[in-house]
Amino acid sequence: MSNDRGPIPPHSVISSVWGRAANVDVERGEGSWLIDRSGERWLDYTSGIGVVNTGHAHPKIAAAIAEQATKLIHGQQNIVFHEPGLRLHERLSTVLDGGPWGVFLSNSGSEAVEAAVKLARRATKRRVILTFRGGYHG
């Protein structure tokens, strides 16, 4: 397989651990579309695997990212407090019933499942929790 820059890199460069739905050499994204180096448009049916639900290069999102990048790139929620995180927690708590536990943010399914198991232990006071092995949650 090749593209206008030559052959798609061999597995010695890019691991074959993950399969590929397509060997598309993407140059940029616009809304729900990916544009390859030849200008062909591809529908991003994965939404960037869940992190691009507002579309690629959305002007408001890009501006907010650029502004925030001048202040703080990453402030892990369980380590530090910061204004955008606090605003998000407050806003979510007004639309969701967080009960006595409040709002918990995670960056992956794995982290969310781990937190759910810990929360179940805490809420039930039980040490044994049934879980599935070998499942992938992100």
Could you characterize the architecture of this molecule?
The structure is a single chain. This protein is α+β, with helices and mostly antiparallel strands and 138 residues long. It has a domain at 1-71: Aspartate Aminotransferase, domain 1 (Alpha-Beta Complex). The chain has 3 helices and 5 strands, in the order βββββααα. It has helices at residues 59-69, 83-95, 109-124; strands at 2-3, 6-7, 26-30, 33-36, 41-43. The chain has a 3-stranded antiparallel sheet with strand order 3-4-5, with no helix packed on it. A hairpin with a 4-residue loop joins β4 (33-36) and β5. The chain is extended and about 60 Å long. The mean pLDDT is 84.
In short:
It contains three helices and five strands; from the N terminus they run E-E-E-E-E-H-H-H. It is α+β, with helices and mostly antiparallel strands.
Q: Do you know the CATH architecture of the domain at 1-71?
A: Alpha-Beta Complex
* Parts with pLDDT < 50 across at least 5 consecutive residues: none
Report the radius of gyration as a whole number of Å.
Answer: 20 Å
Which structural class is indicated by helix and strand composition?
alpha+beta
CATH superfamily (homologous) name of the domain at 1-71 = Aspartate Aminotransferase, domain 1
Specify the helix fraction band: 25-40%
Question: How many distinct beta strands?
Answer: 5
Task: Give the overall pLDDT as a whole number.
Answer: 84
Order of helices and strands: EEEEEHHH
Percentage beta strand? 5-15%
Report the principal-axis shape.
extended
Distance between the termini: 29 Å
